[in-house]
Amino acid sequence: MKSVAAKLGWAAFAAFGAACLAVVALHRGESINAMWLVAASLSVFFIGYRFYGRFIGAAALRLDPTRATPAQRRNDGLDYVPTDRYVLFGHHFAAIAGAGPLVGPVLAAQMGYLPGTLWILVGVIFAGAVQDFVILFLSVRRDARSLGDMIRSEIGSAAGWVAMVGTLTIMLILLAVLALIVVKALAISPWGTFTVMATLPIAVFMGIYLRLLRPGRVLEVSAIGLVLLLLSIWLGGVIAADADWSKVFTFSGVQLAWMLIGYGFVASVLPVWLLLAPRDYLSTFLKIGTVSLLALAIFLVRPELKLPPLTRFIDGSGPVFAGSLFPFLFITIACGSVSGFHALVSSGTTPKMLDNEANARFIGYGGMLMESFVAIMALVAASVLEPGVYFSMNSPAAAIGPTVESAAQVISGWGFSLTPEMLTQTAKDIGESSILSRAGGAPTLAVGMAQILRGLIPGAGMMAFWYHYAILFEALFILTTIDAGTRIGRFMIQDLVGAAYAPFRRTESWTANLVATALCVAGWGYFLYQGAIDPLGGVNTLWPLFGIANQMLAALALIFASVVLIKMKRERYLWVTAVPMIWLLVCTLTAGWQKVFSDNVKLGFLAHAHKFGEALGQNQVLAPAKSIAEMQRIVQNDYVDAALALLFMTVVVLTLLFGARAAWKARRSEQPTALEAPYVAAPVR
Amino acid sequence: MSPRLSASFSLAIDWLRLFARKLEQTAHLAVGIPDYEGYVAHRRAHHPHEPVMTYEEFFRERLDSRYRKGSSRCC
């Protein structure tokens, strides 16, 4: 009786979700309320979790609640701790959530809200959540070992090395693109620059407080830090209004890029307790708080989506990023639907704390659904903007010109109504001098969030406050990622170089540390500087490269998962990981190929290099370059970018070949050959 | 207050207390600090004759370990 009622309930729920989705997909007209999109997404998440997630756990993976997890076997009260699943969910979500799901959907909005929504939903159910869940499970079955370790032992050490080189390159591109987002958001913005700079003394104060004054009082000091942050937003407004002080905090993009490079080096060699840890606390709590606030605001304000479901730019001619819907939509929205980085978290700290295998679905699959919901909210925030405003913020100056008049004229020509007054008014509302060509997603998201939050707490000046709050919130955790990431990059470089020259591996050697840090900072700094001086905005080039890299890492994780399913003799369920794996391979390889070899100068690195190289041969200077030296740099950058895209493709293809060889061997064996930790019964509770 | 009302009142207080504790644990673990009381209980039960870190030592140890090998964070 109960099961019949439950079935009827789920059927009704499914019908409701389908109806919402139909409204989102088929609506043509003026505008549509964001609640349709939110309700459709939530229904898809619940149904996906209840049915597909459960199917994967029960049939493909056969989660075994009687089997002891690493936390139960090796409980030490520190790293390995059986943890309440809700508490662990918070830990896992805080570890996977970052800037990615906020930026990708905003950029993808140039094609309208519909393609992005559909890929976020389909992608998360069949690829992203599956990857996080399966990798978590596989790591739990292998003493909570890391992805790189598991690839080495299940596929072979060559595959392990390839994966490591790939991960390091992804790391560098990720850091460069995140730093570029900060640069784009803070360029010529004294208010934003002041508040972000103020986070440094605030964090150092918190660090000293935690170390010396009241050791370990994390929540207390975070609350103090939050109050100081809000004060700094207010003070930033005062400074921006002051003619003299505002000059002190006004920097160009290139200046900010150099400052970030210097910052990255210094911050990552400072002791962690002084700057990294306290700011990490602050950014983690601010991130979770802001995401909750945004969700609450969307539910209470219920804004209208102004962006059309589809724009003419699905043909690939859009100003925000080049390339047509396939494959570039699937590259641009990386983290909200599937993110390779999560495979590193799912095989990091989380598997050491799982208290029961059966909870792997809630943490792995459920955690990713939550992340995906953040992506949907980012898409909503971008879509509540007037389309004209959206395009003026995200198109490079080379496309829309430097003034509000030129921008309004060009964008009106694209078919989105826009007047110069709308642009000056929006800039005035948010307390900035201009909103033109603020690419990178963060400012767009901030304006969208400010518009939604203004509906929650109205008042003059609130829009400017919320805008800078949102910029601060993104910059804060991007800065944390930059120094944490530089440290990880440094360890990887030390490991890689250490394989050839052993003394380099010693992490207590200052020389090795400084050299490896400098190498890492130079690696991402090169791409950051290149992006900062790029007249096309840089995000244009770097984000697709990052997207390709991130999806490629997911493909690696899924290749590994598929090989292990074969080794476990579960070929019947191979499609669970193989279908998203093939899709990601097709997307990344097609996108990589087009980025390198396309004849379209806007898309292909080589075609672009060829065009500029030819002009250079005749001593001509092509716009946007202004000198022969700039021309040479453009050509050189094109070749570096092309080489990087080729490297990513090589990494994927090599891993696929290694995986195929391992799978072939496993097929010939009669017995399962997966290398799991031996079965130990879980303690009876 | 009738005995019945006061019983359900104290039940609600207990529940709120548990909820607040879970919330605190979640916030701490989100920045890499597991439950200190759990750690102490574990040490007492499994290593009764060995020293137990004070909260301050425990906090330092956790902070160093969180960033020692670098915690991977998403995009």
Overview of the structural elements:
Chain A contains 27 helices and 2 strands. By secondary structure, chain A is an all-alpha fold. In chain A, α8 (157-186) packs antiparallel against α27 (628-668). The longest helix of chain A has 41 residues, at 628-668. Chain A is globular and about 70 Å long. With 75 residues, chain B is mainly α. Helix content of chain B is 71%, strand content 0%. The longest helix of chain B has 28 residues, at 3-30. Chain B is elongated and about 55 Å long. Chains A and B meet through α4, α13, α15 and α22 of A and α1, α2 and α3 of B.
What's the average pLDDT of chain B?
Answer: 88
User: Any idea what the radius of gyration of chain B is?
Assistant: 18 Å
List segments of chain A where confidence is low: pLDDT < 50 over at least 5 consecutive residues.
Answer: none
Q: Report the count of strand segments of chain A.
A: 2
Mean pLDDT of chain A: 93
Largest sheet of chain B: none
The general outline of chain A is: globular
Number of strands of chain B: 0
Biggest beta sheet summary of chain A: 2 strands, antiparallel
Termini separation of chain B:
55 Å
* Series of H and E elements of chain A: HEHHHHHHHHHHHHEHHHHHHHHHHHHHH
Distance between the termini of chain A: 30 Å
Strand content of chain B: under 5%
Structural class of chain A: mainly alpha
* Percent strand of chain A: under 5%
Number of helices of chain B: 3
Helix content of chain B: over 70%
Order of helices and strands of chain B: HHH
User: What oligomeric state best describes the polypeptide chains here?
Assistant: heterodimer
Number of helices of chain A: 27
Order of neighbouring strands in the sheet with most strands of chain A:
1-2
